[in-house]
Design goal:
This protein has eight helices and ten strands. The protein is an alpha/beta fold and 260 residues long. Bound molecules: fructose -6-phosphate (F6R).
Length: 260
């Protein structure tokens, strides 16, 4: 695991955006996995900015989103399809037929989930999967006790996650109970996992994921088994880690050949 700690979410988002941009530049056909929520917004703004000012080209990129609410039409303001369109896709030159988001309105969820896994496989696998982390340690919408080997499927949100996501729906009661999410096994198959976490409210989950035991009770701890997992944190999200001096030293003294 590589732990990158930055003074604030703005600089952390810029670091994360540079990692994604470097991969797109070296591999124009890159397959990118996207996350939603509050955390990646500044990174998406930075990528849009690089597209506009530096010509960062998404023309050949393929996108797969982590998850989607079940039962929402694609154009619902709370759907992740809407989120991605508004915050990233309509601002860059990604081809619409290369955008993949689980279909939360499908009448046949098992077939939709199997098809999603097949599409990821057919695209050659995901090069970089962007991730946030839930206050309960969830990854994607793999809530505590999710199988560490799981694949894309339907999951039930915890009360905590529905509370955390209530704002966009105008109240907790309106947040769907079910989601389609890539599984932890799906995420573990991605070549690089890039997890972003900002703010004090993520500190406990980050410490448990990075320095706690590997356990399905903290789904993000599965990344301890990933060969290329990068955590980009602000100081607050890193505040309960015990080895911050070491992580900072490692990052500051990274040899050139390791830099992205
Ligand atoms: C979103 C997702 C979730 C979020 C997590 C953090 O696609 O899969 O795991 O990354 O709930 O959400 P925020 O960033 O809103 O705190």
């Amino acid at each position: 695991m590589e732990i990158i700690i930055q003074p604030d979410s703005r600089t952390a988002s810029a670091v994360a955006a540079r990692i994604v941009a470097a991969r797109v530049r070296e591999k124009p056909h890159a397959v990118l996995g996207f996350a939603t929520g509050a955390t990646p917004l500044e990174m998406y703004r930075a990528l849009v900015d690089m597209h506009k000012t530096e010509g960062l080209d998404f023309g050949l990129v393929t996108a797969f989103n982590l998850d989607e609410y079940v039962g929402l039409p694609a154009n619902h303001p709370g759907s992740y399809r809407t989120y991605m369109r508004e915050h990233l896709f309509r601002h860059i030159n990604i081809a619409p037929d290369r955008i993949n988001i689980p279909d939360g309105a499908t009448p046949d969820i098992p077939t939709c989930c199997r098809g999603y896994e097949e599409r990821i496989h057919a695209a050659g696998g995901i090069d970089i999967q962007i991730l946030g982390i839930g206050t309960d340690g969830h990854l994607g919408f793999n809530e505590p006790t999710s199988s560490l080997a799981s694949r894309t499927r339907i999951k039930t949100l915890t009360a905590q996650t529905r509370r955390d996501n209530a704002a966009i729906f105008g109240g907790e009661r309106k947040v769907p109970h079910h989601v389609i999410t890539m599984g932890l096994g799906t995420i573990m198959a991605c070549r690089t996992c890039l997890l972003l976490a900002f703010g004090e409210k993520k500190a406990r989950a980050v410490a448990a994921a990075v320095e706690g035991p590997l356990t399905a009770m903290v789904p993000a701890s599965v990344l301890q088994m990933h060969p290329q997992a990068v955590f980009v944190l602000d100081e607050e999200a890193a505040s309960l880690l015990t080895r911050t001096d070491y992580y900072k030293w490692v990052y500051a003294n990274k040899p050139d050949w390791q830099k992205s």
